[in-house]
Amino acid sequence: MLQKSNETQQDVLQQTLKMPWSLSQLLSCCSRQQGINRVRLITRDGHCNIEYGKMKYSTCFAYMHDIWSTCVQIRWYSLTFFYVASFIFSWFIFTLLWYWVGYSNGDLWWQNPSANHTACVLNLYDLTTAYLFSVETQLTIGFGYRVITPLCPSAITVFMAQILVGIVIACFWCGVLIAKISLPKKVAKAVSFSEKAVICFKQDTLSLQIRVANIRKSLLLGSQIYGKLIRTRVTPEGKTFIMEQVNIDFMVDAGKDNLFFVCPLTLYHVIDKTSPFFQMAVDTLQQQDFELVVFLDGTAESTSSSCQVRTSYLPQEIIWGYKFLPIVSRSKEGKYHIDFSNFDKVEPVPTAHCANCYHDLNGRHHFSNNGTDNAGFEVIEIDSQDNQLSSVNT
After folding, report:
1. Beta strands in the chain (DSSP E)
2. Rg of the chain, C-alpha, whole Å
3. Full DSSP string of 141-180
4. 35-49+186-382 and 66-181 share one fold
């Protein structure tokens, strides 16, 4: 019986492939039958899922071209490795230079210097002592056992060069460490978005809503919220546009610019005729091929550093006919209490089946109960000639 079922599925697939379907119809059929397993462009934690290939220059060259940004963005274990390696490498380079200074003056032990010989660096007679003197010079330890003499200009030149190089290396890594600790993405981790987006009514209009919160007590100044709908579109001529971007405007009751981000906010996008969600419905939303990317830009009040928080929602993460539970209340002590246990919780509400039917020009507002059709829905038609009303059960 299982073999028969497999043969039936193969026959259906073969019949489907033999049909003269267009590319858009084939994509629509595949999305309905098997669902869309879309790969995110932006992960939920804000990272970009991008891989570069066949570049003109190698990836290593691109990273080394901007060494500062590379050092700031690499992981901590890589940073520690390069930090230690840079000092050891510089010590070893100057070890060879000090060894050359001693060799050129005949100070090394195997050169058998005379008893009244004056060395360029006292007590520097082999590679080990040259390495120790290099470390002492660059770190300004100054034990005093190995001392430079004023008789060799080459020794004075190497001494000054190593001091300058050591200062540059120390200042560079100090700056990298401070910049890495104060990265804006550390501030962005305190901002969280809701796991789901919902579609429900907001001020007598259908809207897509998300919730965002800043768990730090310090504010994000000049906050701005906006979105991009990234989708794959096939034109009637058969051209496929991958990663087409459409602007999505988000706002709160007071507007969309300079949000007062003192408590969790519910951001909403009005689904009107200009919205890409206008032609979608409760039964077609899950079949769409798009990714909604939401951006939040702001400036940290404590560090004055700009940051951007990103997240994305797939069609399976947008639920129709639900609204977020309230989380802000006033306590007995006169303070505003925020209940984060309800941050991601939603509840069903009566919502229109689709935005198109809600904005019908004839005024036929079709409401649904929790995203499903109402069994007792009636359409009322008005005859302008004889003013007779007729009720038609659907």
Report:
1. 191-193, 197-201, 206-214, 220-234, 240-249, 265-270, 290-300, 306-313, 318-320, 322-324, 328-330, 336-338, 346-348, 351-352, 367-369, 372-373, 378-382, 389-393
2. 35
3. ---SSS-B-TT-HHHHHHHHHHHHHHHHHHHHHHHHHHHH
4. no
The label of the residue with tokens 């009720």 reads: 391
In whole angstroms, what is the distance from residue 222 CA to residue 227 CA? 17
Identify the CA nearest to 327 among candidates 237, 234, 212, 247: 212
Residue 166, number of CB atoms within 10 A of its CB:
20
- Does CATH number 3.50.50.60 belong to domain 66-181? no
Give the residue extent of every domain in the chain: 35-49+186-382, 66-181
φ and ψ of 149, to 5 deg: -105, 155
What is the C-alpha to C-alpha distance for residues 195 and 344, in angstroms, rounded to an integer? 6
Decide: helix, strand or coil at residue 117.
coil
pLDDT tens-digit profile of 197-253? 999 998 888 999 999 998 887 788 888 889 999 988 888 888 888 888 999 999 887
Task: Express each pLDDT in 14-64 by its tens digit.
Answer: 444 444 444 444 444 444 444 445 678 888 888 888 877 777 666 666 677
CATH (residue range 35-49+186-382) = 2.60.40.1400
User: Which token pair is 245?
Assistant: 């971007």
